[in-house]
Write a structure and sequence with these properties.
Layout lengths: L1 E6 L8 E6 L6 E5 L12 H4 L15 E2 L2 E2 L2 H19 L4 E5 L5 H15 L4 E3 L6 H11 L9 H5 L2 E5 L3 H4 L1 H13 L4 E5 L5 H5 L2 E3 L6 H14 L5 H7 E2 L1 H20 L3 H13 L3 E5 L1 H4 L4 H14 L9 E4 L6 H6 L6 E2 L3 E2 L3 H11 L12 H9 L5 E5 L3 H4 L3 H10 L2 E6 L12 E4 L8 E4 L4 E5 L12 H14 L8 H13 L18 H6 L3 E2 L18 E2 L18 E6 L15 H4 L6 E4 L1 H6 L7 E5 L4 E8 L7 E5 L32 E7 L4 E7 L10 E7 L2 E8 L6 H8 L11 E8 L4 E8 L2 E9 L7 H6 L8 H9 L12 E3 L4 E2 H9 L5 H8 L9 H16 L1
Parallel strand pairs: 6-7, 6-16, 8-9, 8-12, 9-10, 11-22, 12-13, 16-17, 17-18, 23-27, 24-26
Antiparallel strand pairs: 1-2, 2-3, 4-5, 4-18, 14-15, 19-20, 20-21, 23-28, 24-27, 25-26, 25-28, 29-31, 29-34, 30-31, 32-33, 33-34, 35-36
The structure holds ligand MGD (2 copies), iron/sulfur cluster and molybdenum atom (MO).
Length: 883
């Protein structure tokens, strides 16, 4: 057994992981690192399932040019030659990089150095534009620097935790667990959630404010006005350490609580409850995430929050402060190396000539970008307009994750030269690459990431590089070398890049910039290998009242509430909100590799309020066609009162790889915040209609089907094959032939011992088909005129069985579990694969709390991510009993 300490590659919590690898058979298992200060041993469902995502299935393993395998030398020469040619003919602004908050700091540093210091353009932007850009600008406006002042402990030390536009329970589950544990220990810790949806996080809160989408500025202006009226300002702090308070207060006062009531749609009493709680609690921590950042007014939302903390002096002290909760594992590292088109390395400003000279002097580079580059949305528009002629995309999947996603697809289709570095062979973006470069994946590469609390942790490789995969920094450096800049990119390893990055951060710094790692600039490869997780900067910033603005004072900003860019109308009366689900990561290239994580939610869905569903004749579990002026998706209706009337929610995760029409970003207009360039991903006007299905189908298949003949399909891996949901507006000519094609039954010959069973009911439109080879299930298809009611988990498990006897084969056709095999129902606990039926049964047998359910079934006892869902089932049962 070899043990390696590393860091989870998913969310910004940055949990420490200990990986054990069996030296004899290579088997990998992992657990949370009990000593890592982010998680102290905890992991969530995604982190616990990491070992199941390591297979080389669908990995990109060698370079490809126009779909043909080529060697690394040829690939790198080609990339360098094409970029050089475009630069020579059209200038440095005609090329661009689009990179990712999932790259390691060292990868990111090299890409940014190449573009800004050598190519001499700032056309490098990152998916952090879609994620953290508004927080960056908000911080810089208020603090003069992009500084997150707090740390995770402050969540536990606070007496009031306000979560704004954050679904912490699903998106930062280990932070949520820390918060839940602190609240269990100290019930006086109050939690308020501000989110239009009643999320799992909201259900945990003491107070949920389901505000109208986009109305946060009005809500926080109301709070600021209340704080002033209530005499809660910290006069001494405001006078000594801030400026702009009067202007901010004037705007807040003028709008007042009335404006907050009308904009948020919340009752005055509810708002006053929150305001009073905030006013009288000294130790307030306000966490915010994409419900704040991903907005046309994201920066003002951030500053409206910061205003309230600055006005009350609640910053830089234990349990107090604003907390921008970062999404990606290295969102912070990307900001530290200056990966955005409007930044320079080491928290320096591209618009500051002294900073430009400093960075260029340090690099001794031939050039330095003289002005800001193109931000993500503009960048792809420039690609579409032919102004950018060569683009290199690394570690992100913009054909699915950018707003106006079909336009991004068109842009790449029209582009002269598209390079994609990825770990996955088949993605919607990789499909459009001329040159594909195989990157090393988590577990294979070395470097550092910085989490939400500014803590730098090592990712350490524990697997050999498979086939020809290479670390991202190496790929960028090799192309730089071939463009003529060998000396500046002659890195031997990640350690030498990190040392240079650390040295730059300290270069002529002397306390003038928050980010300073100069103590690590002489780090040896040995020390780098051993680097323990460490926070940069003090545990808390700004406790001394000193900020990084020219006069050292923080700024309060007048934030005027402006309603969102578009308003619902007769054609598009609904507001489309988008975001995440518990067990999937973004475009699913890694999390969908594990059947366990797919068992929680296996299909794209549209969550809508019962009133909105009823008004449109949309039945639970039927299919919805959701349209905006840009396009449509087809997804399962999830009818729930937890959705705000007039709003619908669709996850961002589904792509063309796993569903016929699940790319929700194709519906989203590229509206963006004027200051940050961050797109409004949470507010699109839309309309939902029932999808007029002539039939619905559900199938389980031993092999991934080559073609799916249905307007709606969604694929999910099962343990021993695939699950498929199907529907279409027209009936096929011949169901038997349809089933044979789906099962690829005609690929077999007479000697293969293939048996087809069929049950047809022409009158009711209910049909069942199953194919077996030598008694083992090849596939089963269930068809009905309404959503198919067969248990998915049960049917998928039949694929795991060896030969089935005749009775079992017939039972399968009947679609019913035998008495010996109770149906588990939809999976709630993905760690132990415990379904809703089992949990409800346990509750019925007297398990009255989450602990008791855990003791009976183990559900919720590993990662704990499903504990809130279990609690909801218990509460639901109680209400039923009472009623
Ligand atoms: N399971 C999982 N976890 C993840 C990720 C993942 O893909 N899957 N991705 C990671 C990344 S990169 C990120 S950025 C984070 C994102 O983490 P979060 O920001 O917590 O997650 P989201 O689901 O994008 O959106 C948060 C909430 O904002 C709400 N919201 C929408 N409009 C408004 C509004 O106008 N005002 C307010 N106050 N709220 C609003 C939504 O209803 C939603 O519940 O998650 C990280 N963690
Ligand atoms: N509608 C809507 N859209 C959104 C959002 C939303 O809330 N709503 N959220 C936005 C946000 S906050 C974010 S962060 C983005 C995320 O969106 P993306 O960044 O596009 O999503 P990922 O699926 O994380 O893409 C990462 C890609 O990198 C690959 N990869 C993994 N590891 C490596 C590696 O080590 N090297 C390289 N080169 N490649 C690797 C993966 O296979 C995958 O293709 O989505 C944004 N889009
Ligand atoms: S909370 Fe989960 S996804 Fe985030 S770092 Fe920790 S284990 Fe990974
Ligand atoms: Mo993100």
């Amino acid at each position: 057994m070899t043990e390696t300490r590393t860091t989870c590659p998913y969310c910004g919590v940055g949990c420490g992981v200990i990986v054990s690898r069996d030296d004899t058979n290579g088997a990998v298992s992992l657990r949370g690192d009990p000593e890592h200060p982010a998680n102290y041993g905890r992991l969530c469902s995604k982190g616990s399932a990491l070992a199941e995502t390591l297979s080389l299935d669908d990995r990109l393993l060698y370079p490809e040019l126009h779909g043909e395998r080529i060697g690394w030398d040829a690939a790198l020469d080609h990339a360098a030659a094409r970029f050089t040619q475009v630069i020579n003919e059209h200038g440095p602004e005609a090329v661009a990089f689009y990179v990712s908050g999932q790259l390691l700091t060292e990868d990111y540093y090299v890409a940014n150095k190449l573009m800004k210091g050598y190519i001499g353009s700032a056309n490098i932007d990152t998916n952090s534009r879609l994620c953290m850009a508004s927080a960056v600008v908000g911080h810089k406006r208020a603090f003069g620097s992009d500084t997150v002042p707090v740390n995770y402990e402050d969540l536990e030390l606070a007496d009031l935790v306000v979560l704004v536009g954050s679904n912490l329970a699903w998106c930062h589950p280990v932070l949520f667990q820390r918060l839940a544990a602190a609240k269990a220990e100290r019930p006086q810790l109050r939690v308020v959630v501000i989110d239009p949806r009643r999320t799992m996080t909201a259900q945990f809160a003491d107070l949920h404010l389901p505000l109208a989408p986009g109305s946060d500025v009005a809500l926080f202006n109301g709070l600021l006005a209340y704080l002033e009226a209530d005499g809660r300002g910290d006069g001494a702090f405001v006078a000594a350490h801030t400026s702009g308070a009067e202007a901010a207060l004037q705007v807040a006062r003028a709008a007042g609580i009335d404006a907050a009531v009308s904009a948020t749609g919340l009752s005055r009493a509810t708002l006053l409850d929150f305001y009073a709680l905030f006013a009288r609690t000294e130790k307030v921590l306000t966490g915010f995430s994409q419900g704040v950042n991903q907005s046309c007014h994201g920066v003002d939302k951030v500053n409206a929050i910061l205003n309230c903390h600055l006005y009350t002096g609640r910053i830089g002290k234990p349990g107090q402060g604003p907390f921008s909760i970062t999404g990606q594992p290295n969102a912070m590292g990307g900001r530290e190396v200056g990966g955005l088109a409007n930044q320079l390395a080491a928290h320096m400003d591209i618009d500051n000539p002294a900073h430009r000279a400093l960075v260029q002097g340090f690099w001794q580079s031939p050039a330095i970008a003289a002005k800001q580059g193109l931000k993500a949305v503009d960048l792809f528009q420039a690609v579409r307009d032919g102004k950018v002629r060569a683009v290199w995309i690394a570690g992100t999947n913009p054909v699915d994750s950018m707003p106006d996603a079909d336009a991004v697809r068109d842009a790449l289709q029209a582009c002269d030269f598209v390079v994609v570095s990825d770990v996955t062979r088949h993605t919607d973006t990789a499909a459009l690459a001329h040159l594909l470069l195989p990157a090393a994946a988590w577990g294979e590469k070395d470097g550092t990431v910085t989490n939400s609390e500014r803590r730098i942790s090592r990712q350490r490789g524990f697997l050999p590089l498979p086939d020809e995969a290479k670390p991202d920094w190496w790929i960028f450096a090799e192309v730089a070398r071939r463009m003529g800049w060998g000396e500046a990119f002659a890195y031997e390893n990640a350690a030498s890049i990190f040392a240079e990055h650390a040295a730059l951060s300290g270069h002529n710094n002397a306390g003038s910039r928050d980010f300073d790692l100069s103590h690590l600039s002489a780090i040896t490869p040995q020390d780098y290998d051993a680097l323990a997780p460490q926070q940069w900067g003090p545990a808390r910033f700004f406790g001394d009242g000193r900020f990084y603005t020219a006069d050292g004072r923080a700024r309060l900003l007048p934030t005027v509430y402006v309603s969102p860019a578009s308003q619902p109308d007769d054609r598009y009366p609904l507001i489309l909100n988008t975001g995440r689900v518990r067990d999937q990561w973004h475009t699913m290239t890694r999390t969908a590799k594990t059947a366990r994580l797919m068992s929680h939610i296996a299909e794209p869905f549209v969550e809508l309020h019962p009133d909105d569903a009823a008004a449109r004749g949309i039945l639970p579990a039927s299919l919805v066609r959701l349209e905006s002026e840009r396009g449509h998706v087809i997804a399962r209706a999830l009818v729930t009162p937890e959705q705000r009337p007039g709003s619908v929610f669709v996850p961002l995760h589904w792509t063309d790889q796993l569903a016929s029409r699940g790319r929700v970003d194709a519906l989203i207009a590229p509206h963006r915040d004027a200051l940050s360039g961050q797109p409004e991903l949470k507010y699109t006007i839309a309309e939902a209609k029932p999808y007029q299905a002539a039939w619905y189908g559900f199938a389980v298949l031993a092999e991934r089907p080559a073609v799916l003949e249905a307007e709606y399909w969604a694929l999910a891996p099962a343990k021993a094959g695939w699950r498929v949901e199907l529907a279409d507006a027209a009936l096929p000519d011949d169901w038997d032939a349809y089933a044979r094609r789906l099962f690829a039954a005609d690929d077999f010959t007479a000697g293969d011992d293939v048996e087809m069973l069929a049950y047809r009911d022409g009158a009711s439109g209910r049909h069942r088909f199953a194919a077996f080879q030598a008694g083992k299930l090849l596939g089963a298809l269930f068809v009905a005129p309404e959503p198919v009611a067969v248990s998915r988990a049960w049917a998928a498990e039949r694929l795991e069985e060896e030969a089935q006897d005749a009775a079992a084969r017939l039972r399968l056709l009947a679609g019913r579990a035998g008495a010996d095999r109770p149906e588990r129902g939809a999976i709630v606990c993905s760690c132990f694969e415990i379904g809703v039926n089992q949990i409800v049964a346990a509750i019925g047998q007297g398990c009255g709390d989450v602990e008791a359910v855990g003791a009976a079934l183990k559900a919720g006892t590993n990662c704990g991510s499903c504990r809130s869902e279990i609690r909801r089932l218990i509460d639901g049962t109680r209400i039923q009993k009472a009623g």
